[in-house]
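User: I'm curious whether this sequence folds into something compact or stays loose and floppy. Could you predict its structure so I can see for myself?
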Amino acid sequence: MGESTQVDVIIKLGGSSITEKEQLETLKLESLRQAAALVHTCVRQGLVCVIVHGAGSFGHHHAKKFGINDGSSHLPPESQAQSRIGFCQTHLAVTKLSHLVSDCLVENGVPAVTVSPCSTWKTRNGAVETSCIQPISDLVLQGFVPVIHGDCVLDSCKGSAILSGDTIIKCLCSHYSVSRVVFLTDVDGVYNNPPECEGSTLLSCISVSPNRHLNVDIGTSKNECDVTGGIMLKLQSAIDIVLNSKGLTPVFVCKIGSESAKEACCDGKITSKSGTVLHLENS
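Assistant: Here's the prediction. I'll summarize afterward.
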């Protein structure tokens, strides 16, 4: 499967959209079922889909407690031993969530297969050094829907790191020709300020200039349990996807279960009043 291979849609299931992020290992089952039904609709229409999901309350709490993203190579031996246990607990938690996601997808008629990055991807100071795309390619070629998740991985400098789902999506977009990326979240889209703030406004369209400038100002907040950078890193990932594809891959941000989510995933456009699309300036 080469660079010219077409993937119709990469769907990111945000950790906050499918889990109760403040409650340890707690699933939002109805939201997950809505997402699974949508993926089934995409598959039924013949779309080539790849699913990536965040860790939510199944990974961030463990990763934060043990400082997995800070690495372990600088620690004394006894602390390194404890860090390895934390690494294992984090990995077990995210694979537990991925099993639940894939199980729900299969129940909805989606031929979903989980692909864990832990033993096959590697970072260097947090940046991807080794990616393992071939198993994902092989599954797509045989008509399966790969399910990849954020995970803890080995880091050649720090010892350990967190590989976010957003970073995985950027890597996939650099290998494949992707028609669109859809981030399914727990809010209606991207707002000019955190949606819980009074007077915040939903942004239906965000244009990105070649120098990474946005046509709007966006204020953000960060959940203290989120070890992958919060909404700002997600926006930066979306900008990277748009720019690296020279505008060929727009990025949609929609609420899980919404009409805009269905339109973005199935049609690559939004006509309803919710949802946000990021695209290249003048494209």
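Summary: The CA atoms of residues 24 and 57 lie 5 Å apart. The helical segments are 15-18, 29-44, 60-66, 77-107, 134-141, 165-175, 230-244, 259-267.
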